[in-house]
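pasting for ref
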Amino acid sequence: MRGLFAGQVHLNIAMLVYEFPPRIIGGLGTYAGEISQQLVKMGNDVLVLTMNDGKLPTQETWHGVEVHRPAHIDLTDTLPAMVNEDLRKWGRGLSFFSDIFAYNVLAASKFVNELVRKDERKVDIIAAHDWLSIVAGTSCKRELEIPLAFHVHSTERGRNMGGGSPVVTALEGMGGTVADKVITVSYSMRDELLSLGFQETKIRVCYDGVDPTKYDPSRVAADDIARVRESYGFTEKDKMILFVGRLTAMKGVDRLVNAMPRIVEKIPNAKLVILGVGDMQDYLGGLVYSIGMGDHITIRKEFIPEKDRILHYAACDLAVFPSLYEPFGIVCTEAMSMAKPVVVGAAGFSGLREQVLSSGPEQTGLHVNPVDPGDIAWGVTTILADDPLARRLGENGRKRVIQKFSWEEAAKSLIREYEDTLSKGSSAGSTP
């Protein structure tokens, strides 16, 4: 059976992913929801097995995607007796690992025993996303001898700046060994996986995306933009800087806060809005107070709906994402799609370097050293002080998204890799 796009073969895809709408915790949930819808639009069947927090239906069809959420069981009391010292150090976080372990076992059991063996569902390829689902992914591959694609959106060492849990790192390595193909989100991430010992011939890059028809500045009314700015007490002359993301050290938002005194010194009407939640939110509030920037910085400690996020992109003059580690920045792509100039962290393993062009006629923003508040301030003030430059960067950013970072392009790239994997058949895996 052919898909909707010329030359494309219909695929039956089983997606194992910890987050899925309406349960979205971060970028993984956004990716899973968007890419699964796009794959269905292209004529493929997508079956998702995801985590159930006890409040969601165990089975439903969501935008054409078949979603299964096995009823959860709590292993918190029994798991500590079965795990090693590393996991015991997680403390209260051991409850999270317990949830992950239960989800993997339940998802694998339902997929193998009920959906495939009992109901005789045809599945061409299994896609397991991050360590959060790789135990289920490898178990399903072993039981059914179906090819496995291991999607790595980030790594434990990267997220923890070189540290993290040895158990999680071992699970990632195991996934790379067993999988028939490893799919990651940027060439920077490819380099990181190689540094961790993943097999080079298995790794392929498929960028994440955004929907430029949804993230479209022409669809936002001027009155709505005015209301957003007025809600923060901004005037038309104020320069609104926007940060969207988790409030964690990895995202560099504390460095952005520390850059604000230097930014305000050159751009007195600069105002920063921070949207997000995370373990640094209380610290950031104290930091804003300690540096005397309360009149210039607003922190909204909440996960705002997509509709409101789009309005904030439309209302801002500049978006800043000074991440110390960012395999691929979906929020950066969203801002670019809304024709906003961006300033991004570009040190270490950073997919933002690939997303954002920092020079030339197609320039979309500026790269900065995310550990240096002075460099962040330079990037912000350079753009805010030059309105024609800001407009040109924003226009270029939207063009770049349409050409390279749409969900349609992301799905086409993914299908090519899945078809290539199927053409080679399932393997038992090899040591990376």
